[in-house]
Amino acid sequence: MTEGGNALELREYWIKQAKNVWIFLRWCLFAVVIGLVVGAVGAAFHHALEWAGEMRLTHGWLLYLLPLAGLFIAFWYKKADMPLERGTNFILTSVRENHPVRLRLAPSIFLTSVLTHLCGGSAGREGAALQLGGAISGNIGHWMRLDDKDSRTITMCGMAAGFAALFGTPLAASVFSMEVISVGVMYYAALFPCVLASVIAHQVALRLGGETTAFAVSGVPDGVDAPLLVKLILFGAACAVLSAVVCIVFHRIGHLFKKYIPNQYVCIAVGGAAVVLLSLVLGTRDYNGAGVAVIERAMAGQASYAAFFLKLVLTAVTIGVGYKGGEIVPVLFIGSTFGAAYGGFFGLNPSFAAGLGMTAIFCGVTNSPLTSILLAYELFGGRSLGLFALVISIAYMLSGYFGLYSEQKILYSKMRPQFIDRKTK
């Protein structure tokens, strides 16, 4: 190689490095902007949902307004020219296929989620936070005139920031935004901006009065032996079966309501009335709203045998007919109460089983094992993380190709390194 050739190669090397530094600095700027904006909106959303929950507990009569709230939600989405069914599925599609997300989705999901919680719908928060963050960041990307690939990345940044701002688990939020889109393939180029945006959003939310979610788990084994491994394998298999049941019930109940009551106004009102009636029959408001108080009791090892199923049915009706919110916290409710109630049958401490069930069911319904392991670390402090990872991986492998999000794609088989490219059932 001549001296001139070496100089040319060196020049090309430094030009390439300069471009890489420029790309890095661009994403630093984008992630900071997304983190600040989505973090502030996430904190406001947190406070609004807390207010709605307190109002619902103080004024029990608000539950009877749930059917009217449903009519308003259907009317709002109709006037905003958005399908009532549009939710997290739409955000997943927007990342994978670069569909535009209109900014009106953000105030719509904010308002209607708060209204759902205020009137006692059984819904969570984080699904709404994913939609909030994705809508805001997607439009910021549009205003910045980003190309298709960068638009996908900035939408994932918003998803991560929204999840982290509301739930306080930035590591799990960062990986979830990349892992949930297409199972088996992750957009690793989005890792840095997603982590930076989620960390900033989390810190902004904390400074504006937000919270970090964490639970105390007791009864975690210090050592591992063969009998314990057998117990964990059996419990993981049970969580896998329950994950499939959760997905089937979620999809079937919504489908049945829409099949037999095609008018969306009548459908959502009837669904709301069904939630009100079931709540009155049960004689408790434990299943209205997100149910964080019940999760805390489950983590202490206290849960009724029917709690997980009742929450599943009420949430499936609420979300299935068109109320807004999210599915993630209800899924954590289902997993933790199942573990607390039935962990003893597997020879496991109820509190430990509640933590295992929470993360394993989350994995089974979202098909996101890496996120679930990080969630276990951030929620429970990381003690005996390998045991959580074992149950999570079993739930992932044995739960089949079911999923909460019908637009989620599974690109590689769960059983072997084989390309399958199919949507979840």
Q: Any overview of this molecule?
A:
This protein has 425 residues and is mostly helical. It is built from 16 helices and three strands. The longest helix has 56 residues. The relative contact order is 0.13.
List keywords for this structure.
single chain; 425 residues; mainly alpha; 3-stranded mixed beta sheet
Short description:
The chain has helices at residues 3-58, 66-79, 88-97, 105-118, 126-143, 148-167, 170-179, 191-207, 226-260, 264-282, 292-299, 307-320, 328-342, 350-366, 369-380, 385-398, and strands at residues 182-183, 409-412, 419-423. The chain is mainly alpha-helical.
The helix/strand order is: HHHHHHHEHHHHHHHHHEE
- Specify the biggest β-sheet: 3 strands, mixed
Percent of residues in β-strands: under 5%
Number of helices: 16
Unreliable runs, pLDDT <50, ≥5 residues?
A: none
* Mean pLDDT metric: 89
Cross-sheet strand order for the largest sheet: 1-2-3
The share of residues in helices is 55-70%
